[in-house]
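Handout, section 4.2: multi-component inputs.
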Amino acid sequence: MESSLNTWPLIVWILPFAGAVFLWAFGPQLKRLAGPLATAVLGAAFVATLALWPAVAAQPGGVHVALWEWAPGISLGLLVDRLAFIWLSIITGVGFLIHLYSIGYLAGDRAEARFFSYLNFFIFAMLTLVLADNFVFLLVGWGLVGLASFWLIGFWTERPSAVEAARKAFVMNVVGDVGILLAIFAIYGTFGSLSYADVFAKAAQGPPAIMTLIALGLLVGAAAKSAQVPLHTWLADAMEGPTPVSALIHAATMVTAGVYLVARCWPIYQHAPGAMETVGVVGAVTALAGALLGVVQWDIKRILAYSTMSQIGYMIMGVGVGAYSAGVLHFYTHAFFKACLFLASGIIIHNLAGEQDVRKMGGLAKKMPVAFWSMLAATCAITGVPLFSGWVSKDAVVYQTLALGHPILWALGVLAAALTAYYMSRMMWITFAGEYRGDPHAGEHGHGPHVPAWVMGLPVAVLGVGSVVIGWLNWPVESFARFLAPVFNGAPEVPVGAWGGEFLSTQLPLLAALIVGAGLAYLQYGTAAALADAPDRLEREAKTQPAFLVKLFYWNELLDALFTVPARAIGTWFARVLDPKVIDAVLVRDVATDAGILGLLFRRWQSGLVRTYALTLLCGAAAMIVYFAVVR
Amino acid sequence: MIPVQMPVPPNLYALVAGAMFFIGVAGVVLRRNPLIMLMSIELMWNAANLTFMAYARAWLNNAGHIFAFLVITVAAAEAAIGLAIVVMLFRPRPQSNVDDIALLKG
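Output:
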C-alpha cells in the first residue's frame, strides 16, 4: 500500500464531520448558504471517494489506514476494501444528490441549517460504520447513524407523530445495538481481538456454539437497523421525517447497514450455518411481509417504505444464503431506484403542499413530467422489467437462492416479486393516471423563497437514469461480482460465469410474476373504466381492505402485548406497591421515624442552660485529665 | 531537673495558675451574669498563659512565649465575639441572666 494514498479515507471521513460541526456552529449566520455548503462538502467527499478508486481497483486488499491503539491489542483504523468502496460510493454519491435536492425541498424551513448539519453528521456516522477496520468503530458508527436517524425523523419537532416515530425508531435500533454489543463481547472473549482481519482469519477456530451466538447477535443488530421482521415496525413510521431523509437514510444507506454487516462478517456466518439459515429466512419473510403490507397502503411514502423493507429483505436473503455479491448488487441498484422513487414522491408532495395520500392525487403525469418519467424508470427497475437495474440484481439474488439450495426461499422471493409488481403498478396508476382528484388549489400558493426547479429535478433525473443503467455493471458481463470476488474469496457463492439454468429457473418465473402482478394492477386500476370512476372505486376499496393487512399483521399490537404491557405493568407495580410500601415506607419514612426517636432521647441534653453546658464541658475535661494522668 | 534557677520556683507559679483556673471555672459555672462569665473565661486563659510563661522561662524554651501570644490573640477574638453576642442578646431584655437565654432548648 502506498502511503501517499492513505490520507484519502481520512479526508472522506472527516469532511462531513467538519461540515456538520461548522453548520451547527454557524448555521444561523449562514442562512440560505447552509444547504449549498453542505452539498459542496458532500461533493468534495464524493471526489475524495473517486480518488480512492485507483488504489481500490489495483489492490484486492484495499487501502488501510492505522489510526491509534485504543487499548492493548485493540488498534483502530480505517479500511477501504472493495466492499467498503461500494458503500462509500453510494453514501457520498447518492448522498450528494440528495443534499442537492434538499436545498429545494427544505427551502424556507425555519431550521434549514440544523437540517443540513444533521444530514452531514449522518454521512459522517455512516462513513464511520463503513470505513471501520474493527468492531469498535463499527459499533460507534452503528450507534451514531441511529442517533442521526432519530434527529432527522423527528426533525419537525412540532409534529407529535414525528417525535413519536423518532422515539420508536431509536428504541428499536437500540435493541439492535445491544445485540451487536453482546456479539462484540463474545468476539473479544473468543478471539482476543476486535480487528476484522484478526477475527476473520481465526473464524474457523471458534467453537460452533459461540460462532452461532455471535452471528445471531449481529443478526439482531442487522434486523433492527434494516427493518427486518420482527423489528420492522419503525421504518414505516419513520416516514414522518422529511422526504430527503427517507430517501437517504431510510432507503439508500442506513437501512442497508444490516446487509453490509452480514456481508462484512461473512466469515463468521460461514462458520455458523444455523445462524446463516436464520438470516436467509428472516430476509425472505421480510421480503414477502413488506410486499404484502405495501399492497394496502394509501400514503405514497408508506408504500415506498414497505417496498424498501421488502427489497432489503431480498438483500438480507441474498447474503443469508451465501450470495454475498448478489445481495450487495441489489443494495447498489436499490440505492438508485429507491432514492429516485422517494425523491420523485418528494417532488409530488412538495408541489401538492404536503399531500401524501395517493387517493387525492391522480393525473399527475402531465403536471410533473420529471417526477413521472423518473418514477416510471425506477418502478420498472424495482418491479424487474428486463434490462432495468432491478431486474439484474433481483434476478441474481433469486437465482442464487435457488442455486445454493433454498427452493422455499426462492419461491417466497418470486411471490414477493409478483406482489412488488402489483403494488408498485397500483401506486403508479393511482398517482399518475386518470384525472386529478385532490384539492384543485393545492400547491398554487407559493411558500417560502423560490429555488430553481433543477435543484430538485436534476437529482431525480440522474437517479432515474441510474435506475435504468446501473444494473449493467453486472449484466451481461458480471464485472460487479468479479470486482467483489476478492472480498468474498472462499464463499460458497455460485462461481461467476456458471449461471447455467438461470433463464428457465428464475428469469421466466420472475417475468411471469411481473406480468401477473402488473396485469392484476392494470385490471384493477389502469383500465379506462377503472380510471373513470376512480374516486368511488378507491373509497370502496379502502373500506374492504383485509383488516389483517391494514393493521399490519397486528404486529404493533403484538409487540405492545409482549413488551410494552409487561413493562408498563412492572412500572405500575413499582409505582403502586414497591415505591410506596417499600421505598417510601421502609427506606424513607422508617429511617426518618428512627431518627426522630433518637432525637427525642438526646434532646434532653440540650437544656439551653449555658451553665449546664459549661459544667458538662468541665466534667469532660476532668475525665480526660483523669484518663491521661491516672489511668495511663 | 529544671536548668534555670528562678527566684520563685515554677511549681509555685503552677499552683497560682491552677488556683486562677478553678476560680475561673467556678465563675463560669456558678455566676449567671454573662459579663462575669466572660471575665472568668479570661481568667482561665490567663491561668494557662501564666503556666506557659513560667515553664518557658524555666526551660528556656521560647515556644511557651509564642503560645502565650497565640492565646492572647484567640482570647481577644473570643472576647470580641462574646461581648458582641452578649450585647445582641441582652439589648431587648431588662436584666442579664444567662439562664433566661434558652432559645436552643431541645
